[in-house]
Amino acid sequence: MTEYGVILFYTTSSAMRAEKLLVAEGCSVKLIPVPRHLSSDCGVALRFNWQQQEKVKSVLDQAQVEVDAIHQL
């Protein structure tokens, strides 16, 4: 079974920017509604394959995308 991570953002625009950056880097990501058991100032989260977590974090850090939290599902 594939393990996923979910990134929460402060704004929808940050989530959309992160999606664009990560797709350009070859990461498999999908914008999803924030899961009910998690909270965020924004209603959009980004799901990614947990095995790519280091690459995902690196890309977002380098692009200075503000992230609220990262959770493993």
What does this structure look like?
- With 73 residues, this protein is of the alpha+beta class.
- It has a single domain, classed as Hypothetical protein rpa1041 (Alpha-Beta Plaits, 2-Layer Sandwich).
- It has 2 helices and 4 strands.
- Strands 2-3-1-4 form a 4-stranded antiparallel β-sheet, covered by helices on one side.
- The chain starts with a strand and ends with a strand.
- The mean pLDDT is 93.
Looking at this protein, list some descriptive labels.
single chain, 73 residues, alpha+beta, Alpha-Beta Plaits, four-stranded antiparallel β-sheet
* Rg (C-alpha, Å): 11 Å
What is the third-level CATH name, the topology? Alpha-Beta Plaits
Number of DSSP-assigned strands: 4
Q: Span from first to last CA? A: 11 Å
Q: Give the strand line-up of the largest sheet.
A: 2-3-1-4
**Biggest sheet layout:** 4 strands, antiparallel
Q: Globular, elongated, flat, extended or rod-shaped: what is the shape? A: globular
Q: Which percent range describes the beta-strand content?
A: 25-35%
* CATH 2nd-level architecture: 2-Layer Sandwich
CATH superfamily: Hypothetical protein rpa1041
Q: What is the total number of structural domains?
A: 1
Number of helices: 2
Give the topology, please.
Elements: E1 4-8, H1 12-24, E2 29-33, E3 44-49, H2 53-62, E4 69-72
Antiparallel strand pairs: 1-3, 1-4, 2-3
Brief overview:
It contains two helices and four strands; from the N terminus they run βαββαβ.
